[in-house]
Amino acid sequence: MFMLEDYKSEIHKMIQDICTALNIDAAIFDVKNHLVDSTEYYLQQKGQAVHAPSIEEVISNGKVIVSNPGYMQSCKGCRFKDNCPAKIEMLNCIKIKNEPIGVFSLTSFTQEGCNRIIQNENMYINILNLISQLISFYIDKRYTENEYSYYRKAFQETIDSSKDSILAVDNNGMIKQFNYSALKLFSVCSLNKACISEILPANINNKILDGSCMLNEISEIDNHNAKLSVYPIDINNNFNGAVIRAHNESFSKKLDKRIYDTSIVTLDSIKGKSDAIQNLKKKASKIADSTSTVLITGETGTGKGLLARAIHFISNRSNYPLVLVNCATIPENLFESELFGFEEGAFTGAKKGGKKGKFELAQNGTIFLDEIGELPFHIQSKLLTVLQDHTIERVGGTTSIPIDVRVIAATNQNIEEMIKEKKFRADLFYRLNVIPLNIPPLRQRQEDIEILAEEFLKKYSLELKRNIISFSPQVLEIFKSYDWPGNIRELENIVEYSVNMEEKSFITLESLPEKFLQNNLNSNLNIKDKIKHIEVQTIKDALDRYGWNLEGKKRAAKELDISLRTLYRKIKD
What we know:
Elements: H1 8-22, E1 25-30, E2 35-38, H2 40-46, H3 52-61, E3 63-66, E4 88-96, E5 99-108, H4 111-119, H5 121-160, E6 165-170, E7 175-178, H6 180-185, H7 202-209, E8 214-221, E9 224-235, E10 238-247, H8 275-287, E11 294-297, H9 304-313, E12 322-326, H10 335-340, H11 358-361, E13 366-370, H12 377-389, E14 391-392, E15 401-402, E16 406-411, H13 415-420, H14 426-432, E17 435-438, H15 449-463, E18 470-471, H16 473-481, H17 487-501, E19 506-507, H18 514-519, H19 527-546, H20 550-560, H21 564-572
Parallel strand pairs: 11-16, 11-17, 12-13, 13-16, 18-19
Antiparallel strand pairs: 1-2, 1-5, 3-4, 4-5, 6-7, 6-10, 8-9, 9-10, 14-15
Helix pairs in contact: 12-14, 15-17, 19-20, 20-21
């Protein structure tokens, strides 16, 4: 359970500092009679080898003073018998909860040091005990901290998997742990170092601190009614805290997923081992906390939206909203009111009380302007003003509203060509393109194709409850030779289709969409010839691997999932 080796670096510093101050040498051994650490001079004099009986004697007796090294009973069989470099040695057993974990030794190799220890024997015995206790206390504390950290992490992973909002509080109501759903629900404060009195009604707060158990009790949270359950934590019949669950499905009003993105992604969600993807992730990590605008470019289906979300959720704005705006789906006459909001009576049919625009909804967070190339020309100048002045003005309003919003935009269009055609403002482009990030198409990073395909296979096998674990070599070869004009989105669609169609435990050519196979025609081969060529090569590879004799053919047929008779026929063909 307690391994001295795990704390070697900390023990080493402890020994060096103490021995320098005392002008003495020291060593520490584990219960398996191994030297864990020592002062340099001790190592020079006695080396790594350990005389096991002497260590076992200390573990058995608790403490041993070797006043005549080399000539004592415990020295029998030692390589230093009758010729020990040590002049005196004091050894003490190190225990944690009465369990021996090792031995600590104070040693002098000089007569002067020996005389000093003998003259002050009680003092050095106390020092020996104190150092042993210090090592014991330190390791026990570190082990307990690690154990606590493990259980804390396990609890965090458990609550993070819940869609409900979960908080853990101590007996004073201070919030100690919470999941992401709770962070979104109680967005009025960061929850770090917060108290439940700041986020829950007084009557509920009092019940929690009284140690009451609650199940599905209705409470008002942020002007919404929700069901709360509270599970008190009692230790030795004393109230020690509580776990609070807010059942999110009970809320009368939910976040509009068309506006807010609530699904957390990180850079680990972007799959690929190619240099291009690794460099892109490094750059995204560097600029995550910046306030500068980002322009993500790349072909359709390369994952621009995923990258934008990852940047937000690894940034220091992750506790605040990520608002999604698809510029291609907003009618031109509604752009201004959608982005900047409107005041009551601003136009016929304007909502009573007015309405916040997307920028206001994203306050302190991030706004993702997808398909920025579709932004109407007359709105571009207004967006430029927002980026420069960090203020917005609602339609029909007369006052400027300050905003603190990180802007990430994305496009699959060539904005520089649009500038030449007078379809996009050059000044807005330069303001958006402060940090350009380009995602290369899938055809330029073939080493990522299999990784992505495997990821989608896991996803849809789970979703569709199918037991499909891999792709046939022929399918992977076709995947790697295809240009993927639809990029990652096309690959995902192909895999999803194949999982629906496949009856075996691996994806075969027969389950791929026919149109995809036709699009994948080699310029010199029709589809049947290409499949035949792949099949022939696969059979030859299997026979080369297992042998062309009868036993090899049996093993090859088994791997190819065909009968031996079918294999002979294909070899003949």
